[in-house]
Amino acid sequence: MKKTWIPAFAGMTLAFCAIAKEVALDVGHYAAEPGVISASGVAEFEFNLALALEVKMELEKLQTKVRLIGERGDYALLHHRTRDARGAELFVSIHHDSVRERLLPQADRFAGFSLFISRLNPFPGKSLACASSIGARLKAGGFVPSRYHADPVLGEARPFADEANGVHYYDNLAVARRAAMASVLVEAGVIVNREEEQRMRDPQVRRRIAAAVAAGVRECLAKER
Ligand SMILES: [Zn+2]
Fold it and tell me: Is the per-residue pLDDT at 11 higher than 60?
């Protein structure tokens, strides 16, 4: 009896812990300042909202609670986002990427996802673990890190935190620095690139990105003791 009871009890404990985790899922930008304008003229906020709603669905499938932040497009102050995330285990901010203004005429050269964390966050190790597992899941899903943010000429010389998985340090990033919990910013793809914008608008691609982000989040939260 004892032999069967112990593993069953251990399983229940794990399941209970999984349900108790909550993720703050932040929709980047807001109606009055909607972020990057895509190659076809659509505001980044629309892309961020569509993807965040999909990530929420995927996380809920994995028994993870989600607190959406900024989905109504009314969060003008960045610190209200991290303030309203208090109590969550992880803050994940959803964005879509651009390139430097002078490189916009060549924007079709730039594609892929990027992940950002801050060493000034109170949980830099956990932030990195979560970003790395999100990046690994995106790669396993066939997506490629963009890499250009690390380049001093093409990007902003953001150092790699985990080069293989497309994770960069961006220490002063407000939503990563100010969050009271581990925090990751996801740039899902480069929407000033015409082809990549079309991919980002494809509901099937969006679902695959969302499933990868959710699986990465779930994986890193499950690893935690
Ligand atoms: Zn953005």
Answer: no
